[in-house]
Specification:
Order of helices and strands: EEEHHHEHEHH
Distance between the termini: 36 Å
Number of helices: 6
Number of strands: 5
Radius of gyration: 18 Å
Helix content: 25-40%
Structural class: alpha/beta
Shape: globular
Mean pLDDT: 92
Strand content: 15-25%
Amino acid sequence: MNLNLTRPIAFVDLETTGVDFAHDRIVEIAVVKVYPDGEVIEKCDRVNPGIPIPPGATAVHGIKNEDVKDCPSFGKLAAEYADFISDADLAGFNSNRFDFPFLLEEFLRNGVQTDFSQKKFIDVQRIFHQMEPRNLEAAYMKYCGQKL
C-alpha cells in the first residue's frame, strides 16, 4: 500500500445490533491505524452490547449473543478507542453515513468527549461509486455496450 500521509489514518469498521443510532449498540469494533512512516497498528474487540442481538443482525455479521456475553461493554473500551483515533483522520466503507455517526453516538452515550472537527473523513464507498458509477448510464454501458 502506497499512501502519502501527513498524519495517521484510522480505518474503522463496526458491527452492531442494528442501524438505529439511538437504540442499537456496537457488538464489534475494528480499527486499522496506518502511520505516515508505514507502521500499522490493529485493534479489534468484541463488545457486549447490553441488549439482545437480533437474528437479522447476526445474519449480517455472524456474531451471536453467546459470542459476546463475557465481553466488555463499549463503555469500558470507549476512552481507549477515542484515544487511539484522536490523532488520526478516519476512513471506512459507508462510514460517513453509518460507522462514524454510530461511533460518535456511542462515545457521547458513554460520556467520552471527542473532537471530530479537525478530522478528514474518507468514505471508500463514495470513492468506489465515483470510480464505478451505479446509475442508469453505467448499467446501460455495462449490459448493452453502448452509451445512453
